[in-house]
Specification:
286 residues; alpha+beta; D-amino Acid Aminotransferase, Chain A, domain 1; 5 helices; disordered N terminus
């Protein structure tokens, strides 16, 4: 196995800062909904469809901005100026294909204003009352209009007539470097946890796993990373040997870090098929 490098030097892709610069942990994580995978047999007339933005999920609790894991984020005062006391949530997004940039900005205690001015908060829900999602769309659109800042935007929602049309929208989204789609049941009340009222539709499945060992490469990858040995939250262990850039093989994730991987279904033993490294999961989301 490759010798483990200094944890701090591998804390992020690019430079996400030191442990001391990480956002502080709030009292407890916010109780947010989580999406299940789209299956293709749903009654589409029940769902609203929107783009899935590839950023960092943020939750405004009425006084501060939190990550999904409950860490207090540190946007500049002007970024959240005039935000209402009602809770709403969205995606802190830096643009198509700019996930690493978004993660880098958010994980700094005091990122430059110029970096934050490239960010958008894409609002997609407002869990202010026991309303159905169709009514909450109107609510979050109203909140965004009330805020009146160009960096706070309401995520558009639309109805899609068929599964074939949905797949065409996904294809167009992915070709434009988008991440995928989200389907939200219009009649559903806000509820935390993973359920089929909210679905994610991507060209591939993805999940997270913890790095438990680094394996050195051979041939053209000699003297650098060959593969990561990872473990899922369910205890399944397997290798990730593809998806890395040359820079990532030279400066790989450290043991103990969490990574996102893509895959295409599971084997009979439950091992992800064609698993491929996507990125290091930002510490702010853990």
């Amino acid at each position: 196995m490759m010798q483990r490098r200094d944890l701090l030097s591998h804390f992020s892709l690019g430079c996400f800062g030191s442990l001391a610069s990480l956002p502080a942990l709030a009292t407890q994580p916010p109780a947010l909904w989580l999406a299940n995978p789209y299956q293709g047999n749903e009654e589409l007339s029940d769902y609203w469809v929107s783009e899935k933005f590839d950023g960092i999920r943020g939750y405004w609790d009425g006084r501060q901005l939190l990550s999904r894991s409950g860490k207090t984020l540190n946007p500049p005062t002007w970024f959240v100026q005039a935000w209402p006391k009602q809770p709403f949530e969205g995606e802190l997004w830096a643009g198509l294909g700019q996930f690493e940039q978004a993660a880098s900005v958010i994980q700094q205690k005091q990122a430059p204003d110029s970096s934050w001015r490239a960010m958008r908060f894409m609002v997609f829900d407002a869990n202010t009352s026991p309303q159905a999602f169709t009514d909450r769309i109107v609510r979050y659109q109203s909140l965004v209009k009330q805020i009146g800042k160009p960096w706070v935007q309401a995520v558009p929602q639309s109805k899609v007539p068929s599964h074939a049309a949905l797949k065409a929208i996904l294809s167009k989204t992915v070709q434009a470097d988008g991440e995928g789609l989200v389907l939200h049941r219009g009649s559903s009340l806000y509820q935390s946890g993973r359920n089929s009222d909210v679905l994610k539709f991507k060209s591939h499945e993805d999940a997270e796993a913890k790095v438990i060992a680094l394996e050195s490469g051979q041939g053209k990858h000699a003297q650098r990373l060959g593969a990561l040995m990872v473990e899922t939250p369910q205890g399944m262990r397997f290798k990730l040997g593809t998806g890395f850039t040359d820079a990532q093989r030279e400066n790989p994730p450290a043991v103990g870090q969490w990574v996102t991987y893509s895959y295409r279904g599971l084997t009979d033993k439950g091992v992800p098929r064609f698993a491929s490294f996507v990125r290091i999961r930002p510490a702010v989301e853990r």
